[in-house]
């Protein structure tokens, strides 16, 4: 099926009707954080029905196949996922903060690459997405290693207080942050995290979709701070599940004072 959306060896799943529906529903997507046609729930049901229970690798493989062959999804995907995997292996984090759970795919990849005993705390705006992610994590057998917190860091402090009071977030306690939520909030949320002092020296921040749909203020900030708080590598890659539209993933190491 995938070869129907390839030209000259380039993967073009955005030619499928599911990608057209996503584009037409962009306002709904950026307001409600679901495409609006039920594909997120369909993914969860498909994973539970077809992936081997307790097999993390097979759950990831099933999600990738669904995203290529049935409905285009907006999680990090396989190509950019390898960049995230490599960052996780370098950081060897015990505590990860993810902003933007969606259907839980990136957390699956991070847990697979993390040391035993590492934990992901994922903040998700939409309760329905959080429920989908929990079901997928449970099926993959990692439900005890991922905690989803419904909210946002920009909600006036409630979610950040919950992370501290209920989940033990404290100064220097976060080893890696993965940003994959509202692109306009990348820089404000990084500043909120910085104000709390959560990042340890040498912590890594990975930011997806910096070119498409784009986080220009965040990118400019990291460029301006090169050598003065942050050391950043820009990874040239592609928008998820295709190989024509280019994207950027930024990987930044925190180097205070």
From TrEMBL:
Keywords: Methyltransferase, S-adenosyl-L-methionine, Transferase
The organism of origin for this protein: Svornostia abyssi
Classification via PANTHER family: CATECHOL O-METHYLTRANSFERASE 1-RELATED (PTHR43836:SF2)
Pfam families found in the cross-reference section: Methyltransf_3
Keyword Methyltransferase: yes
Keyword NADP: no
CDD domains linked: AdoMet_MTases
Gene Ontology BP terms: methylation
GO molecular function list: methyltransferase activity
Entry's EC annotation: 2.1.1.-
Protein name: Class I SAM-dependent methyltransferase
Superkingdom as given in the UniProt entry: Bacteria
């Amino acid at each position: 099926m995938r070869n129907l959306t390839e030209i000259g060896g380039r993967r073009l799943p955005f030619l499928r009707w599911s990608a057209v529906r996503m584009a037409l529903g962009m306002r709904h997507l950026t307001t409600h954080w679901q495409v609006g046609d039920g594909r997120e729930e369909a993914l969860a049901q498909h994973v539970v029905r077809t992936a081997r229970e307790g097999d993390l690798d097979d759950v990831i493989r099933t999600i990738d196949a669904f995203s290529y062959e049935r409905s285009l999804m907006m999680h990090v995907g396989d190509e950019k996922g390898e960049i995230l995997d490599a960052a996780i292996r370098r950081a060897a984090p015990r505590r990860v903060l993810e902003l933007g759970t969606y259907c839980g795919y990136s957390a699956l990849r991070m847990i697979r690459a993390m040391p035993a005993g590492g934990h992901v705390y994922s903040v998700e705006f939409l309760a329905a997405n959080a429920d989908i992610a929990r079901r997928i994590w449970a099926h993959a057998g990692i439900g005890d290693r991922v905690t989803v917190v419904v909210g946002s860091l920009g909600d006036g402090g409630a979610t950040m207080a919950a992370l501290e009071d209920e989940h033990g977030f404290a100064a220097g306690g976060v080893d890696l942050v993965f940003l994959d939520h509202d692109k306009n909030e990348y820089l404000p949320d990084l500043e909120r995290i910085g104000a709390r002092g959560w990042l340890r020296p040498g912590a890594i921040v990975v930011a997806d979709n910096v070119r498409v749909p784009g986080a220009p203020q965040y990118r400019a900030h990291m460029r301006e701070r090169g050598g003065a708080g942050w050391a950043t590598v820009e990874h040239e890659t592609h928008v998820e599940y295709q190989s024509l539209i280019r994207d950027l993933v930024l990987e930044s190491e925190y180097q205070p004072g």
